[in-house]
């Protein structure tokens, strides 16, 4: 069983930055693919970014078109933590952001392929 705890959300003005963190329990973190998703009120959960395990394709990263060039996902296996650096934030980035872990190393883009989820952290972008 893996527990994921997100932190770093908050209120930020448009154009600003935030860094989300997701701390994972367990010994197998380095072998997991990790992802970030978000869900805005009244909308479905959507893919934000993913990263493979370091042993699979050297920790390759994937991004949604809406976040590419603005967001950066990274991982620190020594700290069992995955990060999401968010720059140039827009009003439409407002959502609850969720961290997810896949027992396989691939870092998929579909939410249904993830095995473990955090409780979410709120990100609100104001004008």
Relevant terms:
single chain; mainly beta; 7-stranded mixed beta sheet; 4-stranded antiparallel beta sheet; 0% helix
Describe this structure in words.
The chain is mainly beta and 127 residues long. Helix content is 0%, strand content 46%. It has no helices and 11 strands. Strands 2, 4, 5, 6, 9, 10 and 11 form a 7-stranded mixed β-sheet that branches. Strands 1-3-8-7 form a 4-stranded antiparallel β-sheet, with no helix packed on it. Strand 4 and strand 5 form a beta hairpin. The protein is globular. The N and C termini lie far apart (40 Å). The mean pLDDT is 96.
Structural class: mainly beta
Distance between the termini: 40 Å
Helix and strand run: EEEEEEEEEEE
Q: What is the alpha-carbon Rg in Å?
A: 13 Å
Shape: globular
Into which percentage range does the β-strand content fall?
over 45%
Tally the helices: what do you get?
0
Largest sheet properties: 7 strands, mixed
According to DSSP, the number of beta strands is 11
> Could you list the spans in which at least 5 consecutive residues all have pLDDT below 50?
none
List the helices and strands and how they pair.
Blueprint (H helix, E strand, L loop, with lengths): L3 E4 L2 E4 L4 E7 L8 E7 L6 E6 L9 E3 L7 E6 L4 E6 L8 E8 L13 E2 L3 E6 L1
Parallel strand pairs: 2-11
Antiparallel strand pairs: 1-3, 3-8, 4-5, 4-9, 5-6, 7-8, 9-10, 9-11
